[in-house]
Amino acid sequence: MLRSLRAALARFCVRRAAAAQRVAPRRALGWLRLGCKFAPGFADTYPALVHLSRAIDDRWGAVAAAREASIRFPDHADAWMLLGEALQMVFRQDEALGAFEQALALEERADAAMAAGTLYTRMGRFADASARFARAYAAGGGATALWHNAQALYDAGDHSAADDALNLWATQVPDGHSRLPEARAELRAKAAARAQVQ
Fold first, then answer.
1. Residue 163 and residue 91 share a domain
2. Do 121 and 83 belong to one domain?
């Protein structure tokens, strides 16, 4: 009974925030903060608060809200994804990576693995990146995950495994086999360019 009442109050706050968002975004933030206090679950309140905070360029407010969500709902992978995305907006890459890894520890999901793989790539940790892109593919990330996996493997210097990933990628995209030579050349050129920068 109490849970249902709290959920109803949270939904009311979200509706009031939606009505106020265009003309009074700060008031909408207040409604969403109130809704987060009432909400018995992760639901829509925390994502809405984080997204509105980002929309009005309050990135640190978005981080604070996302961090609160991860503390209140530590077993909810979406809360950790929200935190990781908010931390990226303030260039806290190491902390963002930790949040994405926590989401992955809770649930095998393509978006968390792709986000972690991307950050590992930026850090020059290509073997870790390729492992995360492989997990993203296994979790349903499709051809995009395979492409990034192949690139990370080329960057790591494992050209044989990269070619295997690229061959699998070719089976999942239109005209993949005819595009293989061009794709292989593109990935090798990117790997070479990245090596020169480093």
1. no
2. no
